[in-house]
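TICKET: design request
STATUS: open
ATTACHED STRUCTURE:
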């Protein structure tokens, strides 16, 4: 049997749920080159990437979308971004009044200028954070820091948690919002390191999808590229990126590597 025309071949595939927009862009790009799904699976993304001038992170995104749609595609490795050029601000923007969203936005807003480790945030207490005018003051056993630009996110998170007695009574800055599988787990309790890392990854991925869904046509490729990075962004990388943009070190971990990135970028620019 001869292969069906590319457009009909694409129509036979089910659109992956949650990735309708990205799937449409992938199909449009393939049809511009008269490629069907089998052609793309056999030849990979080299031809599409060259025609659209896609960056490696964008190729990674559409490879994943293709796999979600049933294409037998290899999963390329997402290259780690150059720290000084990655835009982290979308991760600090409030988009809803959902408690989990507000908790993570407050975390990301604090971490931009107080790039502590997951363990330090896990142990951070509310009485260690004070609002002082348009800034927050964080005081721990290791020192004191002034954090600007995070008061709006902090106030929104504090106002939301005050609506729930268990959260209002919790002493942790990032408390659990629901009971977990552990015997001692409770609402308002101290989160595990794994739970925090999972929460950040979920927030980063959701932020990327929001950027893609709301991007203007002329900004779509930039939104796709940023979303591809966000899809695999961990809190450790976020913290190192904040350090690379000039945030004061809070812990030794990751500081040397961030400084090397800054020096390398300075040499290239100079």
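STATUS: resolved
RESOLUTION: sequence designed for all positions
ATTACHED SEQUENCE:
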């Amino acid at each position: 049997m001869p292969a069906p025309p590319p457009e009909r071949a694409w129509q036979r595939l089910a659109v992956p749920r949650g990735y309708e927009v990205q799937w449409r862009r992938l199909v449009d790009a393939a049809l511009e080159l008269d490629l069907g799904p089998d052609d793309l699976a056999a030849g990979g993304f080299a031809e599409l990437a060259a025609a659209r001038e896609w960056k490696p992170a964008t190729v990674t995104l559409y490879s994943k979308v293709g796999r979600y749609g049933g294409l037998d595609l290899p999963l390329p490795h997402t290259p780690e971004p150059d720290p000084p050029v990655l835009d982290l601000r979308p991760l600090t923007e409030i988009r809803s009044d959902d408690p989990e969203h507000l908790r993570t936005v407050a975390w990301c807003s604090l971490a931009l200028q107080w790039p502590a480790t997951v363990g330090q945030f896990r142990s951070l207490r509310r009485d260690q954070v004070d609002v002082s005018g348009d800034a927050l003051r964080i005081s721990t056993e290791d020192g004191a820091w002034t954090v600007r630009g995070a008061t709006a996110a902090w106030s929104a998170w504090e106002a939301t948690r005050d609506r729930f007695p268990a959260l209002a009574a919790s002493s942790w800055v990032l408390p659990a919002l629901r009971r977990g599988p552990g015997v001692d787990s409770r609402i308002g309790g101290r989160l595990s390191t794994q739970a925090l890392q999972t929460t950040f990854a979920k927030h980063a991925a959701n932020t990327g999808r929001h950027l893609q869904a709301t991007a203007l046509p002329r900004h779509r490729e930039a939104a796709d590229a940023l979303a591809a990075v966000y899809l695999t962004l961990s809190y450790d990388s976020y913290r190192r990126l904040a350090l690379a943009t000039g945030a004061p070190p809070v812990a030794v971990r990751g500081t040397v590597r961030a400084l090397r990135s800054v020096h390398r970028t300075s040499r290239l620019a100079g």
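CLOSING REMARK: The chain is about 50% helix and 5% strand. Residues 84-269 form a domain with the hpI Integrase; Chain A fold (CATH 1.10.443.10).
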